[in-house]
Amino acid sequence: MNWTEFFAMKGYALYVWGSYGIVLLVLMVEIILVRHKRKITLQQLRLIRDAESLESI
Amino acid sequence: MAINWFKYSAPSTFYGLAGKMIPWLAWPAALLFCTGMYIGFFVAPTDAVQSEAYRIIFVHVPASILSMLIYLVMAGYAALGLIFNTRLSSMMATALAPTGALFAFISLWTGALWGKPMWGAWWVWDARLTSELILLFLYLGFIALQSSIEDPRRADRAGALLAIVGSVNVPIIYFSVQWWNTMHQGSTVKLSGTSMHIAMQQAMFSMLAAMWLYAIAISLSRVRSIILERERNTLWVAELAEVKQ
Amino acid sequence: MNTLSVYSLLDLVIRRDVILAMRRRADVLTTLIFFVLVVSLFPLAVGSEMDMLRKMAPGVVWVAALLASMLSLGRMFSADFQDGTLEQMMLVPQSLSMMVLGKIAAHWMLSGLPLVLIAPVLGLQFDMSGDALLVLVISLLIGTPVLSMIGAFGAALTLGLRGGGVLVSLLVLPLCVPVLIFGTGAVTAVTGGVSAAPNLALLGAFLLMSLLFTPWVSALALRISME
């Protein structure tokens, strides 16, 4: 298996890898953003909980 | 076995169910993705007409199909939320929108990268790509509308109406763009006329299934955050392990 | 009080909106001026080669009509929303859909109809033939009401929101694409020597469909925005 040839994709490397690259990039970014949102939401919930427990003192 | 499905229409129970489902969707998605890539690159032969560039279809076509499918599902959930006043349905619609928009974007980007070597231009005004572009705008409109409304219930319902009107319009838009395209003799983004080699079909289906499972998994994940935010003042949220720590 | 017939309700709403708009004549005129301005910008930007301009003409006029229609949408509901009239309209037993239809009709008379009337003059700037001009005017006559109706839906959904104008355009423009395609298609057909009838028929179909659905959907959107 000639890897150099494989990656060259008969001259279409830019287009093929550009496409797959963007797919992986977009999916990774989406996953990161969703996880980030979850983290932030949980942080805010903890803040609310802390604020409420302070009030009840 | 009588399952009380309506139990899961409450955000509190759905939150847990969704959480459990995600790994069961994500791992198979990853597996199918790798399988699809393997078949697509190492098993499927070089195309007679389009050489190696045709391999882009293994991401372009599934992304296009999913962008349209997700829009319909999104509109469906939105309609349910509007008609039956169920909050969770609307939350699912909101959760699906960004994923659908990203798939539409992928479809357009890969379409352009496919078009350039094949037809010489970075953008080809063929009917499908143009409709895809309009679909992206429909998604962005939905997301923009919901982001600019502060009251969650108004956002849910306004978005739902927009999504429903949008989905009714999608066939009309597609038909008009088709017609416009033939009038202007634009090129058509198509595969080489010969029927697809079996390995190509397998790769395509594998990638389609992978993206579909991924879409469900990521939307469920997103909806969980939405649920947490919307239900932040409830007891069950305060009792959650991840909040209590 | 006697219950109003549908016709007199429409008449009432249209009259009111037109009279109110006439008090601020500048608003109505600015839409028209914008239309003329945008159309005139194109030759300045792309050069004065007549062949090219003639080909571009229907597209340019239609896009300008679309944008001008978008511009004036704010007027449809926001004034009444701000002074509480809209709320009153929703409480009244008469049909909200009919009142919305009245508002759409008024909007079209003030924004769409002037465009239709001035289009021939602009078309001449682009050296359009008599046939083409006629079809352009007819296509605008049928199409601009549809634009007003789709616009009404967008305006109702975005009532009272910040970022109003741009947001409405983002929502409404994709939905207007079919009207744009067949509106310009009609003129292109006739300049190409083919009949414009199929395109115009489709535009007519859009008009009928919108008449059937838009007032009702927009009324629904208003209720959603107002609660």
Can you give a write-up of this model?
Chain A has about 55 residues and is mostly helical. Chain A has one domain. Chain A is about 85% helix and about 0% strand. Chain A is rod-shaped, with a radius of gyration of 23 Å. Chain B has one domain (about 25-245). Chain B has 8 helices and no strands. Chain B has helices spanning about 10-45, 55-85, 85-120, 125-150, 150-185, 200-230, 235-240, 240-245. Chain C is globular, with a radius of gyration of 18 Å. Chains in contact: A-B, B-C. At the B-C interface, helix 4 and helix 5 of B face helix 8 and helix 9 of C.
Main attributes of the structure:
heterotrimer, A: 57 residues, mainly alpha, 2 helices, B: 245 residues, flat
Q: What's the topology here?
A:
The complex is a heterotrimer of chains A (57), B (245) and C (227).
Chain A: H1 3-8, H2 13-55
Chain B: H1 11-43, H2 57-84, H3 87-119, H4 127-148, H5 152-183, H6 198-230, H7 235-238, H8 241-244
Helix pairs in contact in B: 1-6, 2-3, 2-5, 2-6, 3-4, 3-5, 3-6, 4-5
Chain C: H1 6-23, H2 25-46, H3 50-71, H4 74-82, H5 85-91, H6 96-125, H7 130-157, H8 164-191, H9 197-226
Short description:
With 245 residues, chain B is mostly helical.
Distance between the termini of chain C: 27 Å
Q: Please compute the radius of gyration of chain C using only Cα atoms.
A: 18 Å
Count of alpha and pi helical runs of chain C: 9
State the total count of DSSP E strands of chain B: 0
Mean pLDDT of chain C: 91
Strand content of chain B: under 5%
Low-confidence stretches of chain B: none
Tell me the overall shape of chain B: flat
Helix/strand order of chain B: HHHHHHHH
Largest interface (CB within 8 Å) is between: A-B, 28 and 37 residues
Which structural class do you get from the secondary structure elements of chain B? mainly alpha
Annotation, overall tally of beta strands of chain C: 0
What's the multimeric state?
Answer: heterotrimer
Mean pLDDT of chain B: 87
Biggest sheet statistics of chain C: none
Q: How many domain regions of chain C?
A: 1
Terminal CA distance of chain B reads 37 Å
Helix content of chain C: over 70%
**Radius of gyration of chain B, taken over Cα atoms and rounded to an integer in Å:** 20 Å
